Amino acid sequence: MGEHAVLSASASHRWIHCPPSVKLGETFPDTKSEYSAEGTDAHALAEHKVKKLLKQKTRDPRKKLKFLTEEMEVATDAYAGYVLEFVSDNADVLIEQKLDFSDYVAGGFGTGDAVIISDGTMHIIDLKYGKGVPVKADNNSQLMCYALGGIQMFGCLYDFDTVSLHIFQPRLPDESVFTISVAELLSWAENTLKPAAVLAAEGGGEFSCGEWCRFCRAKAVCRKRAEENMKLARYDFIPPASLEDTDIEAVLSRADDLVAWAADVKEYALKQALSGKAWNGFKVVEGRSVRRYTDEEAVAKAVQAEKLDPYEHKLLGITAMTKLLGRTRFDELLGQFIEKPQGKPALVPLSDKRPPMNSAAEDFDIPF
Predict the structure, then answer these.
(1) In the chain, what are the domain boundaries?
(2) Which residues, 6+ apart, have CB-to-CB distance to 333 below 8 Å?
(3) What digits encode the pLDDT tens for the residues 104-125?
(4) Angle at Cα 174 formed by Cα 53 and Cα 219, nearest 5°?
(5) CB–CB of 217/264 below 8 Å?
(6) Which end of the chain lies in a sparser environment, N or C, as judged by fewer CB atoms within 10 Å?
C-alpha cells in the first residue's frame, strides 16, 4: 500500500493536462489527509468483503481500522455486491491487482480494486469512498491507465476487445460506467498518454489550470493558477447589478476555483508562518477552542452516581436503521415514514447531469 509511482495513474488527469506540475510538485512534501487514511481503511475492508464472497483467502482487517464506522460497513457491503454482479461462472477475478502500464509511462503502475475478465470484456472496477468530489468513469485517465496495465498483463492470455471502466462511489447517488474498445484505448495511450508522460518526466510542457489543480502539491504557489484567478480582479468593487451578463457568466465560471485558490493560499501561508515565516501585516493567534471531556467514561460514572442519565437518546439515522432492520424489512416497516425534501437550489454548469429545476422564485420560497 505504501508504494507509489512518480507518474501515478491517480494523478494522470493532472499531469496529462499540466505536465510540468510533476517536477514543481516534487519540491513540496506529500502530506496525507485524514480523508486519504479513511479511504485506505475503506479499501481494506472492501477487499476483505469481496474476497470473502468469492471464497478467497482473506483476513478480517476491522481491528486495525482507525476510521471504521457503520457508514463504512454499509458502503463496502454495497461495493462488494456491485463487484459480484459482474462475476459469472467463467469469469476470472483479481482483487487488488497490481497493474503495470510502463509500456506507455516510465515506471507506471497502479492497483486495480477489481479486475474481472469474461465474455470478451475486461471490467476495471474502482472504489471511491470520498463524498466531497463526484468522480466519473467517462474517459477517466486513471482507470484507462489501469486498463492498459490489464491489457499488458492479460492480453495474451484472454480474448477481449472491450474494456468497461466502473467508478463505484457508494456515498454519492450513483455509479458511473464507461466502455471503450481496446483499439481506441491503445490509440489514446500512444497519442495522448505517452507524449504527456515524456513531457512530465522531463519537466517540459506548459502549465495549465483546471479542476485537476485540486490535488497538486504546488497549487498554493503556482503562478499560472494565480494569474488565471487574478483575471477576476477587474470586477473588483463593481456592484453585481452593474455587470453585463457576459461579465457575470465569466465570474460564475471561475467563482469556485477562485474561492478554492484563496483557501489554498491561506492554508499555505499559515503553515509557513507556523514554521517561522513572518508575513507583513499578519500574525498567528490561537483560534477559538471548545471545552471537552478528558475521560468520557469517568464523566458518565460520576453523573450516574448522582442517579442521573448522562447520555443523549435519539433515533438512529436512516443508514444505521437500514443496517439494523435490513433493506427489505426497513422498506416494509418504515417506507411510509420516509420523505426526501426538495433540495436547496444551486446554480451549476450545464455539464452537471442533474435535471434542471423550475427557477421560479415562488417555487423555492425565496424573497427577491
Answers:
(1) 12-202, 220-274, 296-335
(2) 325
(3) 999 999 999 999 998 789 999 9
(4) 105
(5) no
(6) C
Q: Between the CA of residue 336 and those of 315, 316, 331, 339, 340, what are the distances in Å? A: 17, 17, 8, 8, 12
pLDDT tens-digit readout, 247-259: 888 888 888 888 8
Grid coordinates of 118: 469474461
Q: Read off φ and ψ for residue 164, nearest 5 degrees.
A: -115, 120
Three-state DSSP class for 192? helix
Which residues lie closer than 8 Å to 306 by C-beta, 6 or more apart?
none
Dihedral sign for Cα atoms in the order 344, 348, 353, 359: positive
Q: Whole-angstrom Cα distance, residue 118 to residue 158?
A: 9
DSSP H helical ranges for the chain: 12-17, 21-25, 34-53, 70-84, 141-154, 182-188, 194-202, 223-230, 245-274, 296-305, 318-325, 327-334, 361-364
Amino acid at 200: A
Q: In 3D, which of 113, 189, 104, 101 has the Cα closest to residue 153?
A: 101
Question: What's the residue count for the chain?
Answer: 368
Containing H/E element for 317?
none
Work out whether strand 92-100 and strand 109-118 pair parallel, antiparallel, or are unpaired.
antiparallel
Q: Name residue 91's amino acid.
A: A
CA 230 – CA 254 distance, rounded (Å): 10
Q: Name residue 14's amino acid.
A: R
pLDDT for 359 equals 57
Are the CB atoms for 116 and 125 separated by under 8 Å? yes
Alpha carbon 119 to its chain's center: 30
